[in-house]
Amino acid sequence: MERNEFISKLESVKGIIYKVSNSYCPDIESRKDLAQEIVIQLWQSMDKYDPQYKFSTWVYRIALNMAISFYRKENTRNSRTTSIDETLIDIAFELESKNEQESQLNLLNQFIQQLDKLNKALILLYLDGHNYDEIGNILGISASNVGTKINRIKKKLKRQFETTTNHGT
Amino acid sequence: MELEELKDAWQKQNTKLNESISLNKSLLREIKLEKAQSRLQKLYTDRIWRIVFYASMMLLFGLYIGSNAPVPQLMISGGVYLILAAIGLIGAVNQLTIVQSIDFSEPIPAILKKLTLLKLNVLRFIRLGVWTVPLYTASIIIMFDLLWGVDIYTVGDKNWWISQIVLSALFVPLAFWLYNKLSIKNMNKEYMKNLFNSSGGRKITASVDFLNEIAIFEKEDH
Fold first, then answer.
1. Which of A22, B35, B54, B77 is the most exposed place for a label (fewest CB within 10 A)?
2. Average pLDDT, chain B
């Protein structure tokens, strides 16, 4: 595949790379590293991509595998990638909590950060609109197992929301 | 607030996010993607170097044995390290096989298991290292020969040798005990955690814990 073709394919999945890096890395430098590693791995795996599967699903698998396999909370920054000062993925502006719903989304983000690596992947895929079969395919578990786990996470999140709301009042 | 309600809001936020984030295309064109070492390549390169190292050691000790024939003590000592190098080589080849089977587009638990098994495979071969303790006499013989050209077995004091043999013999049950104790099955025991809570050991316990986490995740919940 040509580099320009690869870059235009990346354009369609930049959000996935951004979200995964943000969800799994606590600091900006780790996010830069992870984003770069995901891009490198995607480039090196492109010849194995089977077009019968959705490109975004394939990218999610690789991105989550990289994030879960190599990035741990206790990692101190030890860049294994080429040293770059610029970021591969820039955000024009941070989404601010302008209303109650966005505040709750921030709370949701915080709760997601507290989940273990595998459940974090599961809930990210669910929130992004993947169905249970797709999620199960990426995570290597059955669709019914996905459903059970999501229900469990929903209950846990609901309890945490209620606790936070009660403490706030 | 129910997660279902937030899901819609999340997806709307995704749309806004996609509009606000941009790829640094000029940087993407600059990065030497073809030459960039991915994590997987680093694992692969590392195993290749280990294979080269152990194969070289086997060659060197093979030459040592050949050049010291038919002096039995030198040949046996060289033979001990030839075998240890062979064990290291087998370990490195096993690990390379695991690395070559890794494809990051596979389902996540499959990849995590392979990576964790890779680490545990390394540790398994390190465990074999306890057997070098009772064999330390071989290293003394080789060291004296290579550094000073002295066959310490021939010139050494008889009583000293007897004490070395006794010490080596005492190390055998110790090595055997250690080898059995340093088992992944015993990882949850307190003494193992204390023993392994050194810089290398934390990775072992983290690997085992992670395998357990994957197993729990994959288990069908009802």
1. B35
2. 80
Domain co-membership, A77 together with A15: yes
A19 and A44 co-located in one domain: yes
Of A66, A126, A154, the CB nearest to B104: A66
- Do the chains contact at A119 and B105, CB–CB below 8 Å? no
Rounded to the nearest angstrom, the minimum Cα separation between B121 and chain A is 17
**pTM passes above 0.90:** no
- Do both A79 and A95 map to the same domain? no
CATH number of the domain where residue A116 is located: 1.10.10.10
Mean pLDDT over residues B109-134, rounded?
Answer: 80
Query: Measured between CB atoms, does A146 come within 8 Å of chain B?
Result: no
- Which are the contacts of A154, defined by CB distance < 8 A and separation ≥ 6? B2, B3
Cα dist. B96→A55, A56, A130, B146, B178 in Å? 29, 30, 35, 33, 27
Determine the pLDDT at residue A81. Answer: 47
- Top residue of B3, B22, B27, B197 to mutate, by most chain A CBs within 10 Å, is B3
User: CB of A25 within 8 Å of any CB in chain B?
Assistant: no
Residue A1 sits in which domain range?
1-83
Q: Note the helical H segments in B68-198.
A: 72-100, 108-128, 136-148, 152-155, 158-181, 190-196
ipTM: 0.74
